[in-house]
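pasting for ref
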Amino acid sequence: MGVKNINHSQFADDTLLLGGATTIIAHRFKTLLDKFMRYSGGQINNLKSCIYGWNATAHTLQSIASIFGVPCKLNWSHFSYLGMPVSIGKTRTDIWETILDKMKRKIQKWGTS
């Protein structure tokens, strides 16, 4: 019994779409998003949206970004989704520093309440 590939993550109004870096897949995602927005009345905030890719040419990523009408990041090492870092390759410990610091501050506050 196999597990299907995961192609999205959604929490409240934050969505992470995962797919092969092709314009065909981008058009399919865009069609589904347009239907979802039409039925739900929701909207995509293009100012908060971005295309991140790896193992794809700059031209392909820029074409995908154009389909969605959002910018793309060509040179990146990590980004944040729901406050958690998403990175390429082995995660560096410095990426987690801000999260660990935030957790330490919260734990210290619990001790003083």
